[in-house]
Amino acid sequence: MNKLAELMELAKKFGLRKIAKTGFLLVVLGFFMPISCNMNGFQVTKVMDGFSSLLMYLMFLSALAGVAVGVMLMLNKNMLPVIAEWIILGVCVGSGLLVFFFTLNNTYEFQMGAYVIILGWVVAVAGHVMAKKNGEL
Length: 137
Prior knowledge:
Blueprint: H1 2-14, H2 16-32, H3 41-47, H4 50-74, H5 82-107, H6 112-133
């Protein structure tokens, strides 16, 4: 348990908001990895119908926006209001979950990229919640 406390102190020193933004980076990386049927996110969107492909691109673009916010935080240029970070998080996770539950759930078998995207969502959500709890947001 002592190691967990040390890890939390280290995370607080680095900044939980910055750690949360690494989750968006994982989403972007997962999009370039094979998600299903040996196809990356861009290839999967080409075989989907219009609305599902739009949601996939929305997930990718919102993750890119999250990475950009993370870069601004690293440069100590906090130019966006906190609500914008929550909106970016909600759009990224929400659009991805809609695609998962309505399109990918019964049709495709997942590969590593899908799991990296899910891990990115978990890191981003957990980081934002912990940052809010610790007063960083």
